[in-house]
């Protein structure tokens, strides 16, 4: 509970790296086609940046793995570009709480009209919302299992992007010996430079990998609050499986017709 009650580091809005927040609902068709789902705008997750123990409110910075960090929320597109980041919370803060306090969450709650506007994909730490789809906790039917498989493969882009970011900027791998507020700004600057590097096709410098550790999944409890996006998820899962079956049937019909 402490993580849910603590104040943020400093009142701050999300940092939008491509246009305005509404950019998330205006991705082009090429970007959308790279997803296993239709109308997926991007993927959301949080990553921890290790910091030295701060002098103020030190316990709130200790994360689930037992070290001091800030917990940074980010959204990326399917090319690995950051479209939105929110670096403002100590390491013990739950991902869902960070999202609920973000400008992005407020924008989606206010402006999202349904699947026509698309959705973002998140893991089970988030509440399932009409605009933020999470995997089924206990998939028993085929369409649910298929949904979870495609959800995982699509959402993996955000984990890969965090890994690439931390390989590009090794400062984000080691313990940053600065005040938390400055570390938040450093992360934002690195994200901007990462996007610029992608736009200019800058290669990722290879080294011997020493000290490079990509983000590892942390076992955390799933979100247990209100889940008002479950009907949307069920609709998407059923439509997705139905479409797949139709494609298989049409392929079979064509094969039988011309064989």
From TrEMBL:
Residues 44-195 form the DDE Tnp4 domain. GO terms for molecular function: hydrolase activity; metal ion binding; nuclease activity. It is found in: Cytoplasm; Nucleus. Signal peptide: none annotated. GO terms for cellular component: cytoplasm; nucleus. Keywords: Cytoplasm, Hydrolase, Metal-binding, Nuclease, Nucleus. Its cofactor is a divalent metal cation. Pfam families: DDE_Tnp_4. Transposase-derived protein that may have nuclease activity. Does not have transposase activity. Belongs to the HARBI1 family. This is Putative nuclease HARBI1. It comes from Mytilus galloprovincialis.
């Amino acid at each position: 509970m402490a993580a849910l009650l603590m104040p943020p580091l400093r009142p701050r809005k999300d940092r939008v790296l491509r246009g305005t927040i509404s950019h998330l609902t205006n991705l082009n068709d090429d970007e959308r086609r790279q997803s296993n789902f239709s109308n997926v705008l991007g993927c959301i997750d949080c990553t921890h940046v290790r910091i030295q123990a701060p002098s103020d409110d030190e316990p709130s910075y200790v994360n689930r793995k037992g070290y001091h960090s800030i917990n940074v929320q980010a959204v990326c597109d399917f090319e690995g570009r950051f479209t939105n980041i929110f670096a403002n919370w100590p390491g013990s803060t739950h991902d869902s709480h960070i999202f609920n306090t973000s400008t992005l969450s407020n924008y989606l709650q206010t402006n999202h009209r349904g699947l026509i506007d698309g959705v973002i994909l998140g893991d089970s730490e988030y509440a399932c919302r009409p605009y933020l789809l999470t995997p089924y906790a206990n998939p028993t039917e085929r369409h649910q299992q298929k949904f979870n498989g495609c959800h995982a493969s699509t959402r993996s882009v955000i984990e890969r992007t965090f890994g690439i970011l931390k390989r590009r900027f090794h400062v984000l791998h080691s313990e940053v010996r600065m005040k938390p507020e400055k570390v938040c700004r450093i992360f934002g600057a690195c994200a901007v430079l990462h996007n610029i590097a992608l736009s200019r096709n800058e290669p990722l410098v290879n080294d011997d990998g020493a000290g490079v550790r990509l983000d590892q999944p942390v076992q955390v409890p799933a979100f247990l609050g209100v889940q008002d996006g479950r009907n949307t998820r069920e609709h998407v899962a059923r439509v997705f499986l139905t479409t797949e079956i139709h494609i298989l049937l049409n392929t079979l019909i064509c094969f039988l017709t011309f064989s």
